[in-house]
Amino acid sequence: MTAQNNHAQFGLLGRTLAHSWSPYIHKQLGSYPYALFEKEPDEVASFVAHGAWRGLNVTIPYKQVVCNLSTRKSMLVELTGAANTLVKQADGSIFAENTDVLGFTMMLLEFLATNNCIPAVDIDDIIQVMTTAPKGYKSNLLAHHKVVICGNGGASRAVQTALGLLGASMVVADTQGATSYDEIMRAHTDATIMVNTTPVGMYPACPQSILSLEQLRAFSSLKAVVDVVYNPLRSGLCMAAEALGIPYVQGLYMLVAQALFSSNLFLDTHHDVARIRPIVQQICANEQSIALIGMPGVGKTTCGRALAALCGKTFVDLDAEFTAMYAMPPHEFIQQYGEDAFREKEHAVCAKVAKEPSRVIACGGGIVCREENYACLHQQAAIVLLTRPLELLSLYKRPLSASVGVEELARRRMPRYTAWADYTCALDATPQESARHILACITH
Known about the structure:
Helix 1 crosses helix 10. It contains 19 helices and 16 strands. It is α/β, with parallel strands linked by helices.
């Protein structure tokens, strides 16, 4: 996060901006210094008219307001009724553009082409046409695709504009509108693309989903799921798509792409679109957590501390968090109240911790006993299974290992450990060496 700086040439205008990644992205693109301008509604007009800025991005709730404060609007702004980019011209006039439309188009077409939903296309050429074409332009690139769009707010208008220009058939579902999600599911299960434009599932209300796994399953013709939510790294909707084997993408690529198009206008330049992917990958690396799972006593805490120190992330031990939250360590809680009561409260701890980015999380050995813990961890983290020969596992303060037996616990839990894990690491080295091995697996 970047503090407000009313003398910066570039920045983001909005009302609540504490978790914005825009300063980092624009620093990589060269449109910097880049500040966060948090303004109340009665401050916006004066700031736009008299502020010492050269280029502004605009986010909710001001994308429609600034349209009326601009001197000249692009075709995309005229079509959407919203602007997310303002550029102050040499004569003091203000040009308004909607690079959300361009960023969504870039993300969607690259994603669809990669997954063989459309032929390979020259996306640069398409973007050029979209920014220069007269009103009424429409391509036929997506003419054979029916798209269900969840939500009808500001983000939806940008998505609808992009899809309209690409020739798609669209159905808009909104809980406030005449067409409900239930009606959509009954009448349009032949849709080939689904786009969520609502904030459902966005941090910190994650990993919620606009549709359940079973509701999504009803769309039997889906070839792609797109979610404009970009935090957490995997939204609830995208995790449901993943479980059903449906290709999915969410909005981080769009966020960086729209910033690149804004930066082009700010700097009067033409960034190579190849710059988008490395910035996306770096943000993912910075924000991704690492969750360590495995048998009780395998060494998750010791290895986790070394790993957090190595990669500069915050270390969190779920058992320690449980103790702090409920004023009793897990082994005592289990002995006093039983395992079922412990698992219920352990899930609450997991849900609270796992939604935060850039953590190394040492999970309790039984975290896999509750299936819903998987979504909590998977939304932000790479899940790493740590293994060690069973005879080397410690039984100290581990009542289940002592009462049930290590071999029986392993028999019950290992299938889930294996199913949950993105990576597996055998702990046959020092914690520091194991940490380096884990980090190498995740980053390559």
